[in-house]
Design a protein that fits this description.
Layout: E1 3-4, E2 10-13, H1 22-28, H2 30-40, E3 42-46, H3 53-64, E4 85-87, E5 97-100, E6 109-119, E7 123-124, E8 129-131, H4 132-138, H5 141-150, E9 152-158, H6 166-170, H7 175-184, E10 188-191, E11 197-203, E12 206-208, E13 215-217, H8 231-241, E14 248-252, H9 260-272, E15 274-275, E16 284-288, E17 292-296, E18 299-300, E19 304-313
Parallel strand pairs: 2-3
Antiparallel strand pairs: 1-2, 3-16, 4-19, 5-17, 6-16, 6-19, 7-18, 8-15, 8-17, 9-11, 9-14, 10-11, 12-13
Helix pairs in contact: 1-3
Length: 315
């Protein structure tokens, strides 16, 4: 095996013997892969024979550890029958998913992510990475300080027309059960007369890494903000549902709104620390979800990535 000391991504050439089983290889090298993730923030394994979705699901499960059931998702996924293993989010191919940390708005989030490439796109579609420690260090202190003091606030409006419905997000069709879940997880709820649900929650924006104690910029402040939406999408949604009816939006934890310049600056700092590696068929990518942010860039053609959420923890 060879590895490059490129942060936040280490690379491994698996190069197993012809006919070797990818699941067995991943299981046998799980400790080494975990060590690389701990040292670099992410590791990309290249050369495995992931010739089907089923093989990719088994391989992701082999390295994932404790799988985590997703709740409060903001885009649909297909579950694959193995705890914590899903399709990648169904998000328009021509729209980016900006840098974020998976489920950083929730009371429980995965520490480890695993992705396996079944079908690479014809172009684009990179799952890019950024070191959350470097991003935090590069953001202006005047921007960071109020977020560190107050946290960040996410508002969501679930309706049957845009995004994911509350039934799918919370895994229940029982409003009382959803209210119970939200009360237990610090989420404010408001039910509309037409059965729609609006929620709000405040979470820390800066997190001490559970293993190292290093301070990390851990949130989805820029990704889920109205100013990151394509202008035509934002205009349509605002006209259709009103400014408070956007499917999601973010604020400072004290409720202060964010202007475009602040959101743009966060995304610009992410870009300065972004590492990109185009997908190849059979790639396996493991990511420390606290230390390393990830994104999904626009693409053309078919793209199938199996995703795993593992090692849940309370931020």
């Amino acid at each position: 095996m060879t590895k490059a000391q490129t942060q936040p991504l280490a690379r491994l050439d698996a190069a197993p013997a012809p006919g070797a089983d990818a699941v067995a290889w991943a299981s046998g090298h799980r400790a080494e892969l975990r060590d690389l993730v701990a040292r670099h923030g992410a590791v990309l394994v290249r050369g495995l024979d992931l010739d089907s979705r089923e093989r990719a699901v088994e391989t992701v499960a082999a390295v994932l550890g404790e799988g985590m059931t997703e709740r409060e998702g903001f885009a649909p996924r297909d579950p694959y029958g193995t705890p914590g293993v899903y399709s990648s989010s169904h998000w328009p191919a021509d729209q980016p998913m900006c840098m974020h940390h998976e489920l950083s708005y929730a009371a429980r989030a995965p520490r480890l992510l695993a992705f396996a490439c079944v079908t690479p796109p014809a172009s684009g579609g990179v799952t890019a990475l950024a070191d959350a420690r470097a991003v935090l260090a590069d953001l202006p202190p005047a921007l960071v300080e109020p977020f560190e003091r107050h946290g960040w606030r996410l508002t969501r409006s679930y309706n049957p027309f845009v995004g994911i419905g509350w039934q799918e997000a919370f895994g229940s069709t029982d409003r009382a059960e959803v209210d119970r879940y939200c009360a237990e997880h610090g989420i404010e709820t408001r039910w509309d007369a037409d059965g729609g649900l609006r929620t709000a929650q405040t979470r820390p924006a800066v997190l001490a890494h559970p293993a190292t104690g290093e301070r990390c910029w851990f949130n989805q402040i820029a990704f889920l903000n109205e100013w990151t939406m394509a202008p035509e999408v934002r205009s349509f949604l605002t006209a259709e549902f009103g400014p408070e009816g956007l499917p999601f939006n973010t604020f400072r934890g004290d409720g202060a709104p964010l202007d475009r310049a602040t959101v743009d600056l966060i995304n610009e700092v992410y870009e300065r620390h972004t590492v990109r590696e185009p997908w190849r068929r059979g790639d396996l990518l493991l990511v420390d979800n606290v230390r390393t942010a990830h994104s999904r860039e626009p693409y053309r053609g078919e793209r199938e990535i199996v995703a795993g959420l593992g090692e849940p923890f309370a931020p």
